[in-house]
Design brief:
2 helices, Alpha-Beta Plaits, alpha+beta
Length: 67
């Protein structure tokens, strides 16, 4: 299944929920702001969990064909 990850980096507070849920996809940069290191580095389930656990709704996931 194809999906797109969208970030609203200005919302990020560096909680690291995303890096715990999908460590192959997300990392924090030098400013402790989320960045995508490999969009294919995790499953849809992992990425969706990262989005769901983000306290500031910085991450959203769009699944192809669902919009």
């Amino acid at each position: 299944m194809t999906f797109e990850i969208r970030l609203q980096r200005a919302r990020c507070i560096g909680s690291k929920c995303c890096t715990h849920a999908a460590p192959g996809v997300f990392a924090l940069d030098d400013n402790l702001t989320v960045t995508i290191i490999d969009p294919a580095g995790g499953t849809l389930e992992e990425v969706q969990l990262a989005a769901d656990e983000c306290p500031t709704a910085t991450i959203s996931v769009v699944v192809e064909g669902s919009a």
